[in-house]
């Protein structure tokens, strides 16, 4: 028996050490930061590039950008077996004013392997129906006759029309709506999930989230600004086309930790 006791003691110490390591791993948490960058088919775009007709979409429309702002929400970290850690709330990015390009959630994230990091482009229907003072203060609202709530994105500028004239455009994304008025109906959700992919979170991490603005105009729907440049908010078909094109707009860039 004298030979057995040391073995039992060794096993108990080993199990105790493993449990402590597991507890330490479960308790370890890190901060995350999301840097939103913008490009046009790979060429960097900042507010300094606005207000000049210098971009050309896939339809060969020459255009400028004068304002670009959009909202994301429900940043989500997903574990291997489907467990999700959701950072509730929304974040407004205004490229034209250099506001919100960096998002640093207050909630720390446990370290470990995550099969996906994602967020919602826009606001889901429940969240869209709530009152958000910060979005009210910057006039991000949608008129009640169009269902109320908030924009998902506002992109405005000018383009050179087929006539050769410079014409304004308003590429505004909202909840798709039919029958504008006192009893609007909603044919299809137009917010969508952006999947950034897997990450092994070991330390404080900074994620680059890239928006290729040109994708809003080409994939899978070739966008002709001569046909669709204004009055797009009450056009549910246009809103659905925007949602479809938005699927390829975002991608994950550099991750540092």
Task: Tell me about this structure.
It comes from Bizionia paragorgiae. Residues 1-19 form the signal peptide. Pfam families: MbnP. Keywords: Signal. Residues 33-222 form the Copper-binding protein MbnP-like domain. By secondary structure, the chain is α+β, with helices and mostly antiparallel strands. It has one domain (31-256). Helix content is 17%, strand content 37%. The protein is built from 4 helices and 15 strands. The strands form 4 sheets. Strands 6, 7, 10, 11, 12 and 13 form a 6-stranded antiparallel β-sheet that branches. Strands 2, 3, 8, 14 and 15 form a 5-stranded mixed β-sheet that branches. Strands 1-9 form a two-stranded antiparallel ribbon. Strand 4 (55-56) and strand 5 (62-63) form a beta hairpin. The chain is globular. The model is unreliable at 1-25 (pLDDT under 50).
In short:
With 257 residues, the protein is an alpha+beta fold. It has helices at residues 4-27, 125-128, 133-137, 236-246; strands spanning 29-30, 32-40, 43-44, 55-56, 62-63, 67-78, 84-94, 102-103, 109-110, 112-121, 153-160, 166-173, 192-201, 205-212, 250-256. The protein has one domain (31-256).
């Amino acid at each position: 028996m004298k030979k057995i006791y040391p073995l039992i003691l060794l096993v108990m110490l080993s199990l105790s050490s493993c449990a402590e390591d597991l507890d330490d791993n479960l308790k370890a948490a890190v901060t995350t930061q999301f840097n939103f960058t913008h490009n046009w088919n790979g060429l960097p775009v900042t507010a300094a590039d606005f207000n000049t007709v210098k971009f050309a979409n896939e339809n060969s429309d020459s255009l400028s950008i004068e304002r670009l702002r959009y909202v994301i929400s429900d940043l989500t970290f997903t574990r291997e077996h489907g467990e999700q850690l959701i950072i509730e709330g929304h974040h407004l990015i205004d490229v034209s004013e250099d506001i919100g390009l960096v998002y640093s959630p207050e909630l720390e994230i446990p370290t470990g392997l995550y099969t996906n990091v994602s967020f919602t482009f826009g606001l889901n229907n429940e969240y869209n129906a709530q009152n958000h003072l910060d979005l009210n203060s910057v006039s991000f609202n949608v008129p009640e006759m169009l269902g109320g709530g908030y924009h998902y994105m506002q992109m405005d500028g000018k383009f050179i029309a087929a006539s050769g004239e410079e014409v304004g455009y308003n590429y505004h994304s909202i909840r798709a709506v039919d029958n504008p008025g006192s009893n609007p109906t909603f044919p299809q959700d137009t917010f969508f999930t952006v999947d950034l992919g897997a990450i092994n979170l070991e330390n404080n991490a900074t994620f680059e989230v890239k928006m290729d603005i040109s994708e809003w105009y080409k994939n899978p729907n070739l966008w002709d600004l001569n046909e669709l440049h204004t009055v797009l908010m009450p056009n549910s078909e246009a809103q659905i086309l925007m949602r479809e094109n938005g699927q390829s707009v975002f991608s994950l860039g550099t991750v540092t930790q």
